[in-house]
Each structure stands twice: as structure tokens, then as C-alpha cells.
């Protein structure tokens, strides 16, 4: 029944967070740093771009290309850790909170969870990797417990395990990318006055093809959604305008080595579209939930530091906005270049959250 149980249950140090996204593989290694700096030190981090279409919609399409990229990023980072925490795309995982009677043994609980799972999973159970976690006592029911059920197609889990093993690593933890991002965000929010208690915090992770939206209250997600918008839109516009391949356009986008008309004709319309997507998402949150405010908005992902985006989003939404660094409040290892980290940190939210599983 429970393939993910073995993966989710073990947390063996040292361990790296390994984020395999559509466009890039990112690695983070954290170590304990004592009582100061929130207890963590960023020891190493690194990234390597993936060949286009090696990963599509969260699915690993070219195993060899992904393995080669993981090997390069592991070597580039300088880590010796062989245990890795990986993430599954949210769209690949079904999660459901269920209520079960308290007082059952572990074996009884597993049997009951499997029985309940068949009601929510549209696949045969022998095709699924299934796990669960007891959250705690159920609200308003002293004799019941609340249990989080997580299930994914077995082949999707096995693909990521295969990548790790072929790269010389051991998949010790299999998380959900959105949960990892929320863990990293929660650590940052906890540093705010009163630990951020009672504040509604919206997170926009702008990826290559998809923007993932989460709204959290006291560390718990009250709203999640994905929108088909990402940084590849700008890359494709650059390629068409200047007759460049996708890889050439991506490289020029990052270095800024583009003609003088780039800002007016391509960047400004992209920023307008991004700000409009974010504003619409906030309005949809207001109309589809009981909430009518957002106290803080964070941008993350590779596009978060595109010049002008933060200011435009803050102006359009009229919400206090910032670009998040998941490493705020941490000590920085001697091998990490602080200036470079400031430019790259927003893209490492998921990898940082995965690396935090070492201390779970």
C-alpha cells in the first residue's frame, strides 16, 4: 500500500533539497547553526538549467537529460550529501483531509486509510503510492482524529526516485512542492512581529510556465490555485522579435544584452500582463473565499526580480509587497557568494523548503 510511507517517514542527515522544475534543477543544503540565525546556515546551493522539454507539466520526459543535470548540479554545489528530499508537482498529488476514529493502532489506521482512500482516488489503488499523516484531534469531536491523505500515481513517484538513484543519490523524502514552498515561507513569516499571527499572506511563485498561488493564515493554506502564466512567455517573445533560439533568448533575458527597444516593446507589456494576472488572482480570491483582504504579498520564482515587476504589483494590488528570500535570517556559509545569492534566492523557495525537511 504505502510506497510513500518509506520516503516520507525518514529524515536522515545530511540531506539536500533537490527541486526539479520545468526549466531548472536547484539544490540547497542547510546545516544546523545553533540558537542564532533561526538555527540554520545555508551551506551550499547551486542550479543548472534543464534542456527544454526534458520535464513537461511536471512529468519527466527525458530521464537521461534530467539525470545528467542532477549530476552536474550536485558536483557544482560541492556537497557530499547523498540523501535528497525531492518534491512532486501539486497537480500530480491528490490530498484530502479525512476524519477517523481515535485510538486505532498503526496497522488499523493503515487499513482504514486505504479503505477511505478508494472514495477519493480515481485510480486503482495498486497504481497509486499512498501515504497519510495524523494531523491531530478533530475539531468538535473528541473521539476522532484528523488525517491528511496524500496519493500520487506510482509511476510519477518512481520517475523521481529513478532520477535520484541514477544520479548516485538516495530519495529519502518525497514532499509536495507547494508544501515545501509553504514551509520555507512560514519560516520567513515567523520572523515578522508577533510571528505573523493573524496575517493573510499571499505567495505568487512565477515559474517558467505556471504561476502557483497560495494564501496562508497562521501557516495553514486557505487558498491555492495555479494559472498558466510564466517567464517562458517573455523568452518566447524575445526569440520571435530578435530571431533567437529559445536558449539564446533565455540567456539574453538573464544578462540583459538586448536591443534598446526591448524594454518598451517587450518587457513593459510582459510586466503589465504579469501584474494583471496577479491582480485578477487576488480579486478571485476575494470573491471565492470568505476573506476580503491580504496583508502581505510575496513574489517568488525566477521572474520575481524582473526590474519593475514588484513596484507594478504593489501599485496595482495596493498590498504591501516584497520579493521573498527563503534564506532571510539564516547564516551564510563561507562558500556562498552573498551578492550572487541576493539575485538568485527567490528561485530557491521550493529547494529551501525541501532542505528544511532535514530538521522536521
From TrEMBL:
What PANTHER family does the database record attribute to this sequence? CELL DIVISION PROTEIN FTSA-RELATED, ETHANOLAMINE UTILIZATION PROTEIN EUTJ
Name of the coding gene: pilM
Which domain of life, per UniProt? Answer: Bacteria
Q: Which residues form a coiled coil?
A: none
Q: Report what the protein is called.
A: Type IV pilus assembly protein PilM
Q: Which SUPFAM superfamilies match?
A: Actin-like ATPase domain (SSF53067)
The SHS2 domain covers 15-186
Amino acid at each position: 500500500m504505502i510506497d510513500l510511507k518509506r520516503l516520507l517517514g525518514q529524515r536522515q542527515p545530511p540531506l539536500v533539497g533537490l527541486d526539479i522544475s520545468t526549466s531548472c534543477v536547484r539544490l540547497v543544503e542547510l546545516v544546523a547553526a545553533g540558537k542564532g540565525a533561526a538555527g540554520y546556515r545555508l551551506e551550499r546551493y547551486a542550479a543548472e538549467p534543464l534542456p527544454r522539454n526534458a520535464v513537461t507539466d511536471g512529468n519527466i520526459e527525458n530521464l537521461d537529460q534530467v539525470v545528467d543535470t542532477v549530476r552536474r548540479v550536485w558536483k557544482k554545489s560541492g556537497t557530499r550529501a547523498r540523501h535528497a528530499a525531492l518534491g512532486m508537482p501539486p497537480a500530480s498529488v491528490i490530498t484530502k483531509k479525512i476524519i477517523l476514529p481515535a485510538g486505532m493502532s498503526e496497522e488499523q489506521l493503515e487499513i482504514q486509510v486505504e479503505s477511505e482512500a478508494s472514495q477519493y482516488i480515481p485510480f486503482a489503488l495498486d497504481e497509486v503510492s499512498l501515504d497519510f499523516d495524523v494531523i491531530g484531534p478533530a475539531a468538535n469531536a473528541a473521539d476522532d482524529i484528523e488525517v491528511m491523505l496524500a496519493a500520487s500515481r506510482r509511476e510519477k513517484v518512481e520517475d523521481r526516485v529513478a532520477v535520484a538513484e541514477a544520479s548516485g543519490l538516495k530519495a529519502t523524502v518525497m514532499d509536495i512542492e507547494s508544501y515545501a514552498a509553504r514551509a520555507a515561507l512560514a519560516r520567513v513569516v515567523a520572523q515578522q512581529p508577533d510571528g505573523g499571527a493573524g496575517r493573510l499572506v499571499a505567495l505568487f511563485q512565477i515559474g517558467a510556465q505556471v504561476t502557483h498561488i497560495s494564501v496562508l493564515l497562521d501557516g495553514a493554506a486557505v487558498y491555492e490555485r495555479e494559472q498558466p502564466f510564466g517567464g517562458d512567455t517573455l523568452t518566447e517573445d524575445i526569440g520571435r522579435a530578435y530571431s533567437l533560439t529559445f536558449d539564446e533568448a533565455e540567456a539574453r533575458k538573464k544578462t540583459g544584452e538586448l536591443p534598446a527597444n526591448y524594454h518598451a516593446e517587450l518587457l513593459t507589456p510582459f510586466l503589465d500582463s504579469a501584474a494583471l494576472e496577479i491582480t485578477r488572482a487576488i480579486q478571485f480570491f476575494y470573491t471565492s473565499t470568505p476573506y476580503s483582504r491580504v496583508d502581505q504579498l510575496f513574489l517568488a520564482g525566477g521572474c520575481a526580480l524582473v526590474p519593475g515587476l514588484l513596484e507594478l504589483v504593489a501599485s496595482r494590488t495596493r498590498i504591501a509587497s516584497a520579493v521573498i528570500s527563503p534564506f532571510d535570517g539564516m547564516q551564510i556559509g563561507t562558500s556562498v557568494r552573498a551578492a550572487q545569492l541576493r539575485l538568485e534566492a527567490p528561485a530557491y523557495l521550493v529547494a529551501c523548503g525541501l532542505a528544511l525537511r532535514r530538521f522536521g
